[in-house]
Write a structure and sequence with these properties.
Blueprint: E1 2-5, E2 8-11, H1 17-23, E3 32-35, E4 38-40, E5 55-59
């Protein structure tokens, strides 16, 4: 299926958000996620089912100011 990840169209096999993060190489990295503009907590990612055309934002923490 195709979804939008951080503004880029990506073909993926995963059907849940936690599977998708592994597929995209984030694994156990500490990231914040939102699907279609709604924040998804780490504990809820396995229950977050993805659909064709969904928009995913993955944000990694950075230091600095």
């Amino acid at each position: 299926m195709k979804i939008i990840v951080n503004g880029d169209s990506v073909a993926v096999q995963a059907v849940s958000l936690d599977q998708l993060l592994v597929e995209l190489g984030y694994g156990d990295a500490r990231v914040a996620t939102a699907v279609n503009g709604a924040f998804v907590a780490r504990d809820s990612r396995a229950d977050c089912t993805l659909s064709e055309g969904d928009r995913l934002e993955v944000v990694t923490p950075r230091q600095g100011g």
